[in-house]
Amino acid sequence: MKPSYVHSEQVTCVIGVVTYLWIIDFPENAYRSFCFMNKAETELAVSRIQHDRGDVVLEPFSWPVLLRQFLDIKIYGFAASLFLLNMVTTALAYFLPIILQGGMGYSENKSILLAAPPYYYAVIPVVITSIVGDKFRLRGPVIFFNSLCMIIGLVMLGFANQVTVRYIGVYLVTGAYISNWAAMNSYQANNITGQWKRVVAAAVTTACNGLGGVAGSYTVRRQEAPRYFTTIWVNIGGQIITIGIVLIFTVYFFLANRKQRRRGKLIERTVGLTSAMFNHSIPSAD
Questions:
Q1: Distance between CA 190 and CA 192 in Å, rounded?
Q2: What is the pTM of this model?
Q3: Nearest 5°: phi and psi at 137?
Q4: For each of the chain's 286 residues, which pLDDT tens digit applies?
Q5: Among 258, 252, 281, which residue's Cα sits nearest to residue 185?
Q6: Distances (CA, A) of 131 to 136, 142, 172, 180, 284
Q7: Residue 213: which residues within 8 A CB-CB, separation 6 or more?
Q8: What b-and-e string marks burial along 190-205, b requiring 16 or more CB atoms within 10 Å of the CB?
Q9: Residue 207, CA distances (Å) to 19, 85, 153, 160, 179 in order
Q10: Residue 124 CB contacts under 8 Å (≥ 6 apart), including other chains
């Protein structure tokens, strides 16, 4: 094993220990965390969470309660979106130097160097889309926009003839897929409540996320250089499906919120949430 890998793993271990000591506890115990909240601030946060979604108090575990959460179709929509997103992530992140070298003609050293700048650029769209999403309380349109940018970037990467245009496509795809990581996780968290449903959603989405990484690693084939049409078409199709999922969910959430406002129908009933209502996170919910 190369010394550089040993050193990087040592740094990872040190950061892991520090993070364990510094990580924030559950909301009701946040005052115990290092330099975070005092007890009064914790009580205020807990009261707001309880009012918002009513799941601060953990529901007693039982297999029927846990298994019932698998019937919620939203979980699988979120999981499929993360699966398709991680296909792009893996294909581009793991094989970007190969694409730059074999597909664009750069030397090995230049390929390694040129693989880094798109990730620095990605900070810009991540910050902008996160601010927009938080300010307007929107996630679906942000995911739609990022997926559209990924499609445009993939088209530039796969079908353009000029190296500069293809490299700009790498920037577009990288910034968009990293932005969608934040947007998709917020989208899922904002539209699911109940601690056991969150447990199920976390397990299913994490598993599908990993499977997306496995699938993405098979889409970039060296013999297809310099165009890599398999990964281009697969990931374009994946982002079209993601856009379709977001559109379907937007319509579903809009109808659910309208029923709540007009008929008083409860959405995402949880323990302790009897009179409060939970709005799905779409524009009409504001």
A1: 6
A2: 0.82
A3: 55, 50
A4: 556 567 778 888 999 888 888 888 888 888 888 888 888 988 898 888 877 777 777 778 889 988 999 999 999 999 999 999 999 998 887 777 777 877 777 887 888 888 889 999 999 999 999 999 999 888 999 999 999 999 999 999 888 888 888 889 999 999 999 999 999 999 998 888 888 888 999 999 999 999 999 999 888 887 887 778 899 999 999 999 999 999 999 999 888 888 877 776 666 654 443 333 445 555 433 3
A5: 281
A6: 8, 10, 19, 13, 19
A7: 86, 87, 89, 90
A8: bbbbbbbbbebbeebb
A9: 24, 13, 27, 35, 21
A10: 175
Token pair, residue 257, equals 């919120």
